[in-house]
Amino acid sequence: MRNTITTHINGRDITLSDVPPDRMALDWMRAEGLTSVKEGCGEGDCGACTIALGIPAGDHLEWRAVASCLLFLPMLDGRAVLSAEGLASPAGTPHPVQQAMAERSGTQCGFCSPGITMSLFALSRRTERDEESVLDALAGNLCRCTGYRPILEAAGTLPLSVPTESETALAGRLAGLSATPLFYSYGGRSYYAPTDLAEALAYRAAHPEAWVIAGGTDMGLAITKRDQHPDSVLSLARVGELTRLTRHAGGLTIGAAVPYTDILAAVRDRNPALARLLRRVGATQIRNQGTFGGNLGTASPIGDSLPALIALGATIDLVAPDGVRSVAAETFVTGYRQTRLAPDELVGAVHLPDPPPGARFYAYKIAKRQDQDISTLSASFLISVENGMVTGFTAAFGGAADRPIRARSLEKALMGRPWTLDSIREAGAALADDISPRSDVRGSARYRTELASGLLARLWHETRTAGGIPATLDMV
Amino acid sequence: MMETTVVGQPHLHDSARGHVNGAALFIDDLPEPAGLLHAHLITSPWPHARLTGLDLGDCLSGPEVVAAITAADIPGSNDIGPILGNEPLLAHDRLCYVGHPVAAVAATSAAAARAAARLARIAAEPLAPVFDLVTALERGDHVCPPMVMRRGDVDRALAAAPFRLAGETRVGGQDHFYLETQIALALPTEDGGVFLHSGTQHPSEVQHLVARLLGLPQSAVTVEVRRLGGAFGGKESQATLVAGIAALLCRKTGRPVKLRLGRDDDMIITGKRHGFLLRWDAGFDADGRLQGVDMLLAADSGWSADLTPGVVSRALSHADNAYYYPAVRLTGIGCKTNTASNTAFRGFGAPQGMIAAEAMMDDIARHLGKDPLTLRRVNLYRPGADRTPYHQKVRHFRIPDMLDRIGKAAGLAERRTAINAFNAKSPVIRKGLAVMPVKFGVSFNNPMMNQAGALVLVYADGSVLANHGGIEMGQGLHTKITQVVAEVFQIPLSRVRVSATRTDKVPNTSPTAASSGADLNGMAAARAAQTIRDRMAAAAAGHFGVPVAAVRFDQGTVIAGNHRISFAELAELCHQTRVPLSATGFYKTPSIHFDRATMTGRPFYYFAHGVAAAEVAIDTLTGEWKCLRVDVLHDVGRSLNPALDRGQIEGAFLQGLGWLTMEELVHGPDGALLTHAPSTYKIPTARDLPRDFRVVLLEDADNPEATIYRSKAVGEPPLMLAISVWLALRDAIASLAPPGTRPSLGAPATPERILEAVRTAEAAARDRSPGTAENDR
């Protein structure tokens, strides 16, 4: 067990033992003079505080852009960190990303620029860089001055950044640290990051008051926005059993602490519709930290991923010291921010089936903005049509009630019916029985009701697309 | 036209490299001085109430808490009203909105100050609030006297017109969402004054109002601004609040004090772009040619006047946009509501005024079954029909030619045909296309403000330091000033620096606002440099024994007859021979005047022009939309720096697009702002950039007026080009309705509002009864 935070920031080894564990990396870095890391919102939505986190991955570091405003300081442990101050070569030559940003007028006021530079640095380490992945890399960085065109141009010219020899050695050193549990405490507050599930469960049972986090992107808000401070934190981010993603015939088993970014990579080919949905969960910085486990644990009534899990018939493993039980995704959330998790249980894994042969999966998310926005309404459908008749239909909605719901009345109304617009219109009344949306800043109840039937109509149009007439804006 | 070597080149922003490596420091990045205290505001939880008690005892109980202030602690005058006055820094009687500052605390850490602020006990008697602009309008709750701009007999013209149509549009407000929130750092000086690092566009106003708060002479307060992390008008008057609190606590404790608003506080407490209610009544002939226009432009001012009189005045003076109104009456009203006090925002009322004109053009075209572009062309200013509603003659009007050019470049006629064909067979997706002009008056509406000063220093080694009154907030003003000074001296750009803007270098400056930064400060800096250059030329002439007329400055060298001397050597020579190498420059815009009583005159030195064509697609099942293509042709005169100017155009366009389509200010039933952070208030991201975005600067476009190197202002005008996107959305919706029907779409055109307008249009198509939808929402 280690009890100090060991990290490597902008080329320097750093060991920390005298900072509270609920200090956010942003605040600590700024106090240390790394003022390129800016606070723009304190909630992971603007990207001004973006830093690159180097995660050991064999002979190199996997660099990921993260929002340092929501990063508990101990999350730097066993990681390398880069901020804009550390990008230039030791001789002072600007990094190609910095050159591209400066020379293509990618900066105006400059406040968002260090964060954007770090997002682009992470992008520059990746080989696949089509237009969509560039937009994905920048989706979590707001710029109010440039209109983004020069930044996108800069992104389009970046040469591939390759690992250096020293990076290989560093990756090895950090990997050794990450494999050992961390118990860090200072100022009466503690942070425990075990590597073993049994240890995590034992701690959970002994410390029911501890905050349980994986990426911390939701619980971090309690600190930055609500001034709440935990006495103890249990981090699941390093627990071996929870960070595994296994592919098998018929589906995936996704550990509760696997970041969205890795889930996205795994489903990209198997379930493109799900991948399109997951690309709209938060933005890159949030997906690099956030997990299914966290999204399920907070039991949001919208829950970006849960409607898709329900429609696909996913099951969720709940683990306790005395064993594992498996529950259907549909039954996991029991009410507004209520779940079936017992006090001594943790979300273990999600079993995510591929769409069965003959069935097609569609997932829709409607929000005021395409990127980094919470759904006004989301809908997921799994549908089989044979000879013009609906032979299989599962529908789930988020943002349509106090929790993500399965639309059983709608399913019943459409099963065995001809797959026509008339059937959909007739099923409208059944859909109204399933949903009970509320009005809030993202949309009125009336709009949400209209969206639910609108998305059902979209489903029909999309399954029937012919003659080059687009059924969705994506096809325009 | 004179040749230039430095001016007109696409030089990089002078801080570009520092922006990407962390070297460019913002106020919160400065090393913290010893003994620094952090301040936090205590604000009203009521939208409207009479303050009956304020107990800060608990706030002061914490060991880290050092001081607190209320209105009673203000030694000078508790007033930071920028135009009309009587706007207290801290409330002492009435609490007028949720977030209204009543007190502040200072502690040794920001966290302690924030925690202490929560312990304040405020007692108040609630009063009836007014949140809605229409209610305030009907009740006659105004923050300033109504303004009327008129020419001709509009009532008679309307009565006599063959056709008449009226309409109403609601336009929402907009948060600035500068990435750097409001901040000030106040330091005590040894002689009893205060030195302020302030995040302000208007350092002189901060200086003057802080001096008034403290009861000190203005000379005892110095304000420095190196750079702002965005401002867009939000740091013109609003910065005084933050600077004032820091200065008062600094004065009270004798210690340095920093106040930085977190994002939520910034959005809740400070003002935004004014939402407007726009009503118009137009008379016209069968071609759609206007005969009379009567408009009401009512602004949601929030709780106080702030800059509202100026905003309303500019809204009125842009409610014509590019169109001639033969008889016209424009009435502007600033309505008082119990919300944050709205303020300057890029365009300063002009965008809202222009929306009234453009909605009217669109609606008349649809009413008559005419092509909207044709109808716009019929109404453009033209010889003999060239008087604005404020009686200024429109000269050097470039819009007709620019519309011709964009029509060809963007293939508008062919695309219109293609879109109509697409819409005829597309069941879910509909496309829309719109073209619009922008004519924007350049100069502050208040003639007094059109002045600027500069101080240029040439050192003995020939390096140059330029100071001026303008603020660098991302637009590249310092880069342009550097180019101007380098051009005058004919030396490389690298030999000129611009320092932080300071009130002890150039006094009594105007805000960097109204797109005027380069126009005013560029000219002042050029004049200062010319004064020194003339002295240096005389020195060279004397030294080499040639006439002054034989001396010229050329690429770092000074040529005097047959003699050559480097600029640096000549600077050294001047120093040796006791020739002064510093000079001030002053500029005031010529030819402008405005009579506020009659709302007539020549408020604008010249007009900037732009045209835009936008194509969008909407999803009729969800109200989602997508911008497919935008063409922009914009008139920046002879560009001082085409890279910076293009950046202003693109950035302004996307900011305007955000305002009109996604940025929604939602208030709760108690008037509290609910969308006070980026999680709920959505500004555009990179994916919202039109995927095909073609921006062209008008060529051979020297400003006919004698502006700095014949350039034109560029900060605000292009924002209004984004109205084309809103018009294109209306066009797509109109394709669903029967001919003659107007789409009912206000702004912001969120997916929810688009879907509602789609449903209304579809219902009209079912009813086949044209002429519905009187009101836009």
Brief digest:
The complex is a heterodimer of chains A (476) and B (777). Chain A is of the alpha+beta class and 476 residues long. In chain A, 32% of the residues lie in helices and 23% in strands.
List the helices and strands and how they pair.
The complex is a heterodimer of chains A (476) and B (777).
Chain A: E1 5-9, E2 12-16, H1 25-31, E3 50-57, E4 60-67, E5 80-82, H2 96-103, H3 113-124, H4 131-138, H5 149-156, H6 165-178, E6 182-186, E7 189-193, H7 197-206, E8 211-213, H8 219-224, E9 232-235, E10 245-248, E11 251-255, H9 260-267, H10 272-278, H11 284-287, H12 292-298, H13 306-312, E12 315-320, E13 323-328, H14 329-332, E14 333-335, E15 338-339, E16 346-353, E17 360-366, E18 377-386, E19 389-398, E20 405-406, H15 408-414, H16 421-434, H17 445-464
Parallel strand pairs in A: 1-5, 7-9, 8-9
Antiparallel strand pairs in A: 1-2, 3-4, 3-5, 6-7, 10-11, 11-16, 12-13, 12-16, 14-15, 17-18, 18-19, 19-20
Helix pairs in contact in A: 2-5, 3-4, 9-10, 15-16, 16-17
Chain B: H1 16-21, E1 37-43, E2 49-55, E3 65-70, E4 94-95, E5 101-107, H2 110-117, E6 121-126, H3 133-139, E7 147-151, H4 154-160, E8 163-171, E9 183-188, E10 194-198, H5 203-214, E11 221-225, H6 239-253, E12 257-260, H7 263-269, E13 276-284, E14 290-302, H8 308-316, E15 327-336, H9 350-368, H10 372-379, H11 399-409, H12 412-425, E16 429-442, E17 451-458, E18 464-468, H13 477-489, E19 496-498, E20 501-502, H14 517-544, E21 551-554, E22 557-560, E23 563-566, H15 567-576, E24 582-588, E25 593-595, E26 600-602, E27 606-619, E28 625-634, H16 642-661, E29 693-697, H17 723-734, H18 751-767
Parallel strand pairs in B: 1-12, 10-11, 14-15, 18-19, 28-29
Antiparallel strand pairs in B: 1-5, 2-4, 2-6, 3-5, 7-15, 8-13, 9-10, 9-12, 11-20, 13-14, 16-27, 17-18, 17-24, 21-22, 22-23, 25-26, 27-28
Helix pairs in contact in B: 5-6, 8-9, 9-10, 13-14
